[in-house]
Amino acid sequence: MKIKVFSGSHKGREGNTLILVEEFLKGAEEAGAETENIILIEKNIGYCRGKFECWLKTPGMCTIRDDMDDLLPKFMASDIVVFACPVYFDNVPAIMKNFIDRLAPLLLPHFEEDENGEYRHAKRYEKFPKIVVMSNAGLPGQTNFEVESLFFRRLARTFHTELIAEIYRGEGEIFRGKSNLMLKLLLGKYKKMLRCAGKEIVENQKLSEKTITELEKPIVPASLYIKFGNEEWDRLCEENKVD
Questions:
Q1: 133: closest CA among 147, 110, 121, 149?
Q2: At 108, is the secondary structure helix, strand, or coil?
Q3: So where does this one cross the membrane (predicted)?
Q4: Which of 23, 203, 221, 236 has the most beta carbons within 10 angstroms of its beta carbon?
Q5: Is the full-model pTM beyond 0.85?
Q6: Which of 37-51, 196-210, 225-239 has the lowest mean pLDDT?
Q7: Using a CB cutoff of 8 Å and minimum separation of 24, what contacts does 220-225 make?
Q8: CA–CA separation, 191 and 185 (whole Å)
Q9: What are the structural domains of the chain?
């Protein structure tokens, strides 16, 4: 099984979402998957021009020559693709949305009605990779991911495939608190569950209810996270104060 992660954080390898991805992939690799994590900020990906040239002039191929020439085949050669990104103002970051816009050549321009009576573009290929979503938010709580969840569910429908797992983690900044022994123990337990999730996706193409429940539990109480988070922001504001 081939799993490709497309990591869409503007922080690149310094983002908190990458910590989730690395643990998930460890579990997937232990279960025998061939994996690759592609950091989108490190790639040259231009903006879609919206001229439909990938449907009319060069069917199935974008006329913009950049790293999407390599990424589109990687996407389609995958059994599972993981969209991994933080939440920026209740939705995916610009770099992730830009990458998704550039997937347009994988579809046909023609319209069709789906099994629910809605409309979408027809598929260019017989089979598309299944989708997993991993996302991190600085704020606590699962409600931060409501827009992203709907977006990726709709995206799976658009690309004639299944969204087989969603892993959402609030309280993102606790991943930076490695010096605290108790926090380190709590994070260790959560990372173990991420590795279990990676294995389950390879072995079962889905997550068990037990794993989902464990992954969605708060790592620390929201009130405590907010308290220490605001204290840290006060410290940073004071530290960066301009005279």
A1: 149
A2: strand
A3: none
A4: 23
A5: yes
A6: 225-239
A7: 220/171, 220/174, 220/183, 220/186, 222/140, 222/141, 222/171, 225/140, 225/171, 225/174
A8: 10
A9: 2-239 (3.40.50.360)
